Amino acid sequence: VPPVQASPGVRDVLRRVIVLQAGLLVVVALLATVAVLSYRRAESDARRTGDVLVQLEALRAEVLSAETGFRGFLLTGQDAFLEPYQRALPRLEQREAAVRKQLDGPERQILDALRSNLGEWREQFAEVVLGDLGTGHREAALHLVTSGAGKIRIDRVRAYVDDLEARAERRLEDRRDTAQQRAELGLLLAVVALVALVVTVYLGRRRLQRSVGDPLRSLAMMADRLAEGDLGTRSTARGVAEVERVALAFNEMATATESTVRELRAVDRIKSEFVSVVSHELRTPLTSIRGSLGLLASGAMGQLPPEAAEMLRIAVSNTDRLVRLINDILDLERIEAGREALEIRPVSVAQVLADAASVVGGAAEDGGVRLDVEPVEATVQADADRLVQAVTNLAGNAIKFSDRGDRVVLRGVVEGGEVLLQVVDEGRGIPPEKLEAVFERFQQVDGSDAREKGGTGLGLAITRSIVERHGGRVEVESALGLGSTFSLVLPLAPGTRDRRIAGGRVGSELVVVVEDDLDLREVVGATLGRHGLDIANAATAEEAVALCQERDPQLLVLDVKLASGSAYDVVRMLRQDDRLRNLPTVVYTVVDLGLRAQEALRLGETVFVTKGAANEDGLEQAVLRLLGRDGQAEAGVTSR
Ligand code: ADP
Known about the structure:
17 helices, elongated, binds adenosine-5'-diphosphate
């Protein structure tokens, strides 16, 4: 990991992203404001220009009425015609003043010219003509009129008004164009800024993803790998400073753990070698001690007095125990160190059970314990000798901790894809709080076990090591005073799934229980399990059919109502299977079934049991009857 300070922290990255986005927002807001303001200015300019136009129109109207009035009076000589002329004169002044206020520059000069021409028309023409007429100089008046001096001026006035109007109109158009352009420009800028904002939001997100999200995910993956025991993994995550610091810490942690593990392994190896050397060194002298004692005890060196013989017996038995202990220590050490390669090949479970039974047969006889084997035809991938050793350890314990007359069963059970090698006894049992501990080295439930039963406290540890090296596990169930069941659980070798023993069935019989109520299922399972029956459960019609086809059971226990599908579906589908259409079946229901319903639910020999009406005994008896085990229902449980 490169120097930490090289990368900015999360806070810096966030700050940059936020500053950029806030800045863009401000720019958008400013641009929008400027656009709106300039649009409004152009708008109000346009409005004012519009006003000027209106006033110019009014001015033109007044010019017209002054001129028309004056002309009418000239033609008719009637005072009534003069009135509009007189009324128009002050108004002309007002209009001109109003327009003047809104003009400047060259237009103001045009207005000045207009005003002076208007003044001249009035003072040097109209008023003079009127004066001449009033004083009876009609000739002079007519002469002035026909000279065209008035016309020239008033035409000019009109031309100025036209000019001003044209200019105002042009300006109006200009302003409107400008307003529109401003509005469009403002809109365009706002859109551009918005797009930029969106882009920065996206870029910010991507930046955060790259500098925080991605490296965190890669760290999480590394943590997973570490947790899985891959201590060689290192993180190369680059991103914000915090992430890189975590990555650095992770790497240091992994390095530290790796070297600790290496040291521990070294220590472990030294310890194992030490144990091994010491044990081997002990073995040689022990062998000669045992040999000498054996010779003495045999009387080969002369008859011994009874007290001496008793002392010798104690010495021999303790020497034997010491030899066993050393052998066990060596075994455990070898298995756990994995130094001894397992010879894995397909092994028959039935053979393993038989071999183990023959090893402990003598001990069972000595202890007055009945030893039964209930094999199953199944194959596991295993080292046969080691597996026999594991079962033998369990069987030896079972016999050791049973009383005279008790029974010990070595049983094989196939369950799902697994094989259970079970050792069942009716002995003293193990207290629940010790169930874990007995698998540890030198752990015994009773401190006197080692002495009295000759144990070493290593048997279960060895058994567990063996099974775990085979990829299996050990399970134990026990009840104080009632007995224990130890199970070695191993994966079933592929391809051996349905090779059950044909003809004279030796394994326990398989009952498929189809029940969707979990509590009831448990009760039924426990009830039938007491008879050593192998139970497989299904909750739906499809599951039930698949299970039957796969496991080929001896009996089906069928609840009518199921979570998905019903007993009718199960029966209909099983009837299509040659192997299963005659399967003995116990149907149990909440209500008594009519004849038609019973017919639809019949496979092989079928017994109908009504829940509630019959108690669990009813079901139990029906099952045993169909399995041809009638006698056992009355006798209670097979072996207890
Ligand atoms: P040991 O050589 O003492 O039998 P194990 O590791 O085989 O050593 O067993 C450890 C202890 O577990 C035994 O001493 C005993 O107390 C208890 N134990 C093992 N198997 C049984 C059993 N089948 N019934 C009762 N107790 C048992």
